[in-house]
Structures are given as structure tokens and as C-alpha cells.
Design goal:
By secondary structure, the protein is α+β, with helices and mostly antiparallel strands. It contains 14 helices and nine strands.
Length: 463
């Protein structure tokens, strides 16, 4: 006999009432959940798309402003004069005698500063002879402006005149305050004047790329060397071109991007003006200066840039907010300790963090849209993505927020409904038991009477 047949009428009635209430509650909860989920998803996608579009406009405008500024400065007579004077003064130093003491001090600087820092982030051991300057002019200037410069690393730009009596230092003392002010006011990392042969005859910051030659020197394979060759070949007025981020050895292997324009005096090609682009300015735009919540991105949302190589071009919010937790996430995903060390050394995810997600792949392919994907941390997110309109830079932009944060109001509402439903089910159960007792009691008395009649107990019949 089936279990249902064994149940009493009272039990069946209680089960029917509770079952009906449970089915109604489950259906109501499901419909409410689905409606709330769809509404929230649509609203957050719209919000992310709006933030993404706003950031894209700002990044595109920023690069256009940099392009215009570089092009305008390259046409400034002051720049042309500085290019001509510094190039001639640099050439005069090619015959200056270089003492062994100068070479030893330069070698010491390279070993203790540049090579030591490169060794902490790059595989293998950098070779000293591959990096040290070779020409007399390069050795002379690197000694006075770098190795013997009394200012610490990062502050070498404060030296206007080393008082060595050279024509170069006299000219440098006149222009350095002007160009240092340009770099600081506009937020550039560095400024370069490069002669037509590819020699860096001047920089503001005075790293080891100062006096190098981008055709034959230690950094001939760098992205700035590539950009120099492109601009030199173009020799076109009203021209400025950026080049994408790449590891740049003179900045100790940190990611560096550049923009450059040709310098003319009349119809004569004088050289090239270049700027090392400020990573901090790009990050300020993408992070809202660290105020993600004010941008409407809550506790887990972020906007970031990705290149065609699927590596980040702006910093990760999670690295900024909690570097240790970010590194632990990378370890759990199987990333190498070498990669994690580079992120820690440079304090950036630019050119380090891979982002080969469905959204990034779609954006790199030239599509824009929204979808739910697993992000570069392998966490489900709502993602809004699109390619950027940047000439010569194949970047895309993504705005994302963790699915758990987006749906947290639904989860909270569901828990409240579950508690309410449990209490309601308890009340219904008690009510069903009470009603069943009232309705079934007369029926049970009648059944008992019928059974007594059938047993021959007529005198006890209620009839």
C-alpha cells in the first residue's frame, strides 16, 4: 500500500494545505527573483556603459591634447634653437679627452644603480659593457650629469650646471629650467631632444638614455628607438605620433610609452622632440583618482585599458587597494613568481597583467557590448567593453563590476523572503492542523459509529 493511502484524512488535509502554500510561495519567489535580477542587470549594464563611454572620451581627449601639445612645441623657435645649440655643443665634446677615473665612476654608477635594478626584475644577468656609453661626448656628459651629479636618482634633473666650463653646460643651464618646468607643469615623465642621426643630445630627467644613440646604442631595440626611426623617416610638418608601452631599460625596465614630433627650422629638419608619457595621468583618469565609488563603480567596479597583446595599459584597482591580496590572487591562479615580482617592483599591472577574457577578446576584435564573463581574476563580473579611437594605439576599454556586488540586493531580499516564508509556513502549518482538527473530528466520529454498527453494537449507535 502506498504511503499516501496510509495517511489519515487529517494528515492528507494538512499536507494539501502546506503543499499548496509552498508551491505558491516558490513560484512567487522565483518570479520576483527573476524580475529583480533582470532589472538590476539592465540597470548596472547601463551604468557601466555610461562610465566606460565617459572614460573613453577622456582618454581620447587626453591623447589628442598631448598630440597637439607635442606638435605645437616642436614648432616653437625655442625648441628649434635648443636643438641646434645642444647638438653642436654635443658634437664639440667628441674630441674631449676622457680619463680613467671618469670611466670608472660611470661603470660604478651602472653596476650599483642600473644593472642592480634590472637584475631584480629581468631574467639573467645584465652585462656592464652592453650598457655603458662609448663615445667621448656620451661618457663626458654622463659623468657630469649622472655619475658625478650630487643629486640622488630621480632628482638628477635638479642640476642645471655642473660648472665644468663646457659650452654644452653653459647652454644646458639656460634651457634646463625652461624644459624642466614644461615637464613638471604638464605631467610628463621626461623630455628628449634627438638629433637627425638618432643621438639623444638632451633629456630633462637624466637617465642612462641621455647621450645614447637609438641607431647603434644599447637601447636601439627600445620602443623609443622605433618611434625615432618612424618620425625621422616621416620628416613631415604638423606630425606627431605616439608609440605603445614597452619595458624601457633606462627606466629600470618599467613600462614606458612615448610621443614624438619632428623639429624644423624653416625647411631644415633639425631633429626630434619626444616626451615620455606620464603613466600616473592615465591611471588618474581610469581610476577616477582612486575614487571608484564616486564614479558609480561601488566596492568592486573598475575601468581599465587593454592592448592588442591582451596586457593591461592601466593599473588594476585591486592592486592599488590591496597589493598583497592581489598578489595572492595571482598565485592562486598559477601566475609565476617572476611576474608577481615585476608587479611588486614596478607597482603596476601595466604590461604585466594578462586579460584574455571573453569581453577583452570581443573588444580587441573591434566589437562593443555588454555581457557577464569571468574577469582576469576568474571572478564573474558584468562587463561593458569597446575599442578606443586612438591613432596608432590599439587599445580597448572595459568597465566591470563583480556579479556578487551587483546581485547583493537580490540576495538580501531573497534571504528576507526566505525568513518570511519560513515563518509563514509555520503559521500555515499550525492553522492547517487546527482547521483539520475541526473539520475532520465530526467525520471521525461518524466513521467510528459506522464501524460499531458493522460490529453489531447497535445499542451504542448514535442513530
Amino acid at each position: 500500500m502506498r504511503l499516501l493511502d496510509r495517511l489519515s484524512i487529517k494528515s492528507k488535509l494538512i499536507a494539501d494545505v502546506i503543499g499548496s502554500e509552498w508551491l505558491f510561495d516558490r513560484g512567487d519567489r522565483y518570479l520576483g527573483y527573476r524580475s529583480g535580477q533582470e532589472n538590476l542587470t539592465e540597470r548596472v549594464f547601463s551604468q557601466l556603459t555610461s562610465v566606460r563611454a565617459s572614460k573613453a572620451d577622456r582618454i581620447e581627449a587626453y591623447f589628442q591634447n598631448i598630440r597637439n601639445h607635442t606638435q605645437t612645441l616642436s614648432e616653437d623657435p625655442t625648441i628649434a634653437s635648443a636643438m641646434k645649440e645642444l647638438a653642436l655643443a654635443h658634437q664639440k665634446l667628441q674630441t674631449v679627452p676622457i680619463s680613467g677615473q671618469i670611466d670608472r665612476q660611470i661603470a660604478t654608477y651602472y653596476r650599483d644603480i642600473l644593472l642592480r635594478r634590472l637584475a631584480t626584475t629581468e631574467q639573467g644577468t645584465p652585462v656592464l659593457e652592453a650598457y655603458t656609453p662609448k663615445s667621448p661626448a656620451a661618457r663626458y656628459l654622463q659623468y657630469h650629469y649622472i655619475a658625478a651629479n650630487p643629486n640622488p636618482v630621480g632628482k638628477k634633473l635638479l642640476l642645471d650646471d655642473p660648472r665644468d666650463g663646457s659650452d654644452y653646460s653653459r647652454i644646458h643651464a639656460r634651457y634646463q629650467p625652461i624644459f624642466r618646468n614644461i615637464v613638471q607643469k604638464f605631467g610628463y615623465y621626461d623630455m628628449f631632444l634627438i638629433d637627425p642621426q638618432g643621438t639623444v643630445v638632451y633629456t630633462v630627467f637624466k637617465e642612462t638614455d641621455f647621450t645614447t644613440n637609438y641607431q647603434t646604442g644599447a637601447y636601439k631595440d627600445s620602443n623609443l628607438a622605433q618611434l625615432t626611426a618612424i618620425v625621422r623617416a616621416a620628416k613631415t610638418r604638423n606630425y606627431a605620433r605616439p608609440i605603445d608601452f614597452a619595458a624601457y631599460a633606462p627606466s629600470y625596465g618599467a613600462p614606458a610609452a612615448f610621443i614624438a614630433a619632428p623639429i624644423f627650422s624653416g625647411s631644415e629638419f633639425m631633429g626630434i622632440l619626444a616626451f615620455q608619457l606620464p603613466v600616473d595621468e592615465i591611471n588618474k583618469i581610469m581610476t577616477g583618482n582612486g575614487k571608484w565609488a564616486s564614479d558609480g563603480l561601488g566596492k568592486s567596479g573598475e575601468t581599465y585599458l587593454v592592448g592588442h597583446d591582451y596586457l593591461m595599459r592601466s593599473v588594476s584597482r585591486f592592486l592599488v587597494e590591496d597589493p598583497k591580496a592581489y598578489q595572492q590572487t595571482l598565485r592562486s591562479l598559477g601566475f609565476s613568481q617572476t611576474l608577481i615580482n615585476r608587479i611588486d617592483r614596478y607597482d603596476t599591472s601595466i604590461l604585466q597583467q594578462p586579460v584574455r577574457t571573453e569581453a577583452a577578446i570581443a573588444a580587441v576584435a573591434g566589437r562593443q557590448g555588454t555581457q557577464i564573463v569571468n574577469d582576469y581574476r576568474n571572478i564573474p563580473v558584468l562587463s561593458s567593453y569597446a575599442p578606443l579611437k586612438l591613432e596608432h594605439l590599439d587599445w580597448v576599454i572595459l568597465a566591470e563590476m563583480d556579479l556578487s556586488e551587483v546581485y547583493s540586493p537580490i540576495y538580501t531580499f531573497e534571504r528576507q523572503i526566505l525568513i518570511s516564508a519560513t515563518l509563514l509556513l509555520l503559521v500555515v502549518t499550525l492553522l492547517a492542523m487546527a482547521l483539520a482538527h475541526l473539520f475532520v473530528k465530526p467525520i471521525e466520529r461518524t466513521i467510528a459509529s459506522v464501524r460499531r454498527v458493522a460490529a453489531g453494537e447497535l445499542e451504542r449507535s448514535p442513530l
